[in-house]
Amino acid sequence: MVVSRWIIQKSILGETVSDTFLDLMLRDMEITEVGPDEPFKPMAKLEEGDHEVGEATEAQKKLFIMAQKLAKMALDTKSELYFAPDEGARAKLAVRFNEFVSKHNVFMDILWVSVKEEFKLWDKPSIGLRKNWIVVWNEPQVPTLRDLLGDAFG
User: Fold this and answer.
1) DSSP secondary structure, 64-75, as one string
2) Around Cβ 118, how many Cβ atoms within 10 Å?
3) pLDDT digits (tens, 9 = 90+) for 105-148
4) Has residue 12 been placed in a domain?
């Protein structure tokens, strides 16, 4: 296998087939389609100040699902790490944990770049995905002194 410019080429019966790295990851994680019952979809409701710009593409939905699955795998591995019987097992689990976290971060970065490009949101300070795959942008809320101090002074 040769890796070149994010394309993996493999020879099958003398025929060259090209798959992107993302395609291979999606296939490995068995993400073929996004159904209405997908457990890893965005759950956040629209918030005050959200500006709706459209619906995420199928590719963006798959990236989000993949990133969320990787986050779950990292959390599951962290739990296993906590209960590992010895140092050798902990070392192997730590490597897996770091792999899942790194992949999660990369796929989230790719997702946000894709969303910014698709919806021309490069100048927006904050973007997000909401329930029903709605893409939004908003201005970050600057907390007031009262927000920061809460009820500390009555």
Assistant:
1) HHHHHHHHHHHH
2) 15
3) 998 999 999 999 999 999 999 999 999 999 999 987 777 777 77
4) no
Tokens in use for 136? 């939004």
Pick the more confident residue, 85 or 28.
85
Q: Is residue 94 part of a domain?
A: yes
Alpha helices for the chain (secondary structure H): 21-28, 58-82, 87-118, 145-149
Tens of pLDDT, residue by residue over 25-49, are 666 665 556 666 677 899 999 999 9
Residue 131 lies in a domain: no
Residues 76/67, Cβ–Cβ less than 8 Å: no
Contacts of 62 (CB under 8 A, 6+ apart): 26, 31, 34
Number of structural domains (the chain) is: 1
Q: Beta-carbon neighbour count of residue 152 at 10 Å?
A: 7
